[in-house]
């Protein structure tokens, strides 16, 4: 009895270790990169880049949703080919369509938010041209809203 429970624990811990070491999908890795960039976004350029990334992810999700819709249509039309598994395949494809569409909707909202942030930052003159960022003594004046060439 002890050997069976010991073997069970060993197998269970080995499976846990394998699952924790599993690679993330490219989409999960991309989302993690976006979230890191989102935390560090301070300028309008950062928010503009984030908006473009969210827009690209949303497009990918909509493409995947279309692929699943085509599969769903195929499963519905040719259900006789899949026997008992036909309904499972249909419900799985439908669930994926909903998941991808919801993710795309969230990403579109995030892209709109970051576009809005970028436009607000550029309107408030927080945007500094790249050639002026390297000027000495500019950093302290930029935070106060002054240019080093402006007279106080």
Features:
152 residues; mainly alpha; 6 helices; 77% helix; 0% strand; flat
Q: What percent strand?
A: under 5%
Category from helices, strands and their pairing? mainly alpha
Order of helices and strands: HHHHHH
Note poorly predicted spans. 133-152
Assign an overall shape. Answer: flat
Distance between the termini: 85 Å
Number of helices: 6
Largest sheet: none
Number of strands: 0
**Overall mean confidence score, pLDDT:** 76
Rg is 25 Å
- Can you give the helix content as a percent range? over 70%
Structural features, described:
The chain has 152 residues and is mostly helical. 77% of the residues lie in helices and 0% in strands. The chain has six helices and no strands. The chain has helices at residues 2-20, 26-40, 44-77, 86-123, 130-133, 138-144. The longest helix is centred in the C-terminal third of the chain and has 38 residues, at 86-123. 11% of the residues are buried.
What does this entry show, briefly?
With 152 residues, this protein is an all-alpha fold. The protein has six helices and no strands. Helix 3 (44-77) runs antiparallel to helix 4.
Topology readout:
Elements: H1 2-20, H2 26-40, H3 44-77, H4 86-123, H5 130-133, H6 138-144
Helix pairs in contact: 2-3, 3-4
């Amino acid at each position: 009895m002890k050997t069976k429970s010991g073997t069970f624990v060993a197998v269970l811990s080995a499976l846990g270790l394998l699952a924790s070491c599993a690679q993330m999908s490219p989409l999960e890795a991309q989302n993690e990169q976006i979230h890191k960039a989102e935390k560090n976004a301070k300028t309008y350029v950062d928010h503009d880049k984030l908006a473009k990334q969210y827009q690209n992810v949303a497009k990918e999700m909509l493409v995947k949703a279309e692929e699943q819709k085509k599969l769903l249509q195929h499963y519905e039309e040719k259900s006789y080919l899949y026997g008992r598994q036909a309904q499972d395949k249909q419900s799985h494809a439908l669930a994926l369509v909903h998941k991808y569409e919801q993710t795309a909707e969230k990403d579109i909202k995030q892209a709109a938010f970051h576009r809005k942030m970028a436009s607000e930052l550029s309107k408030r003159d927080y945007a500094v041209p790249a050639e002026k960022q390297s000027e000495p003594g500019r950093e302290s004046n930029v935070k106060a809203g002054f240019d080093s060439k402006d007279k106080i």
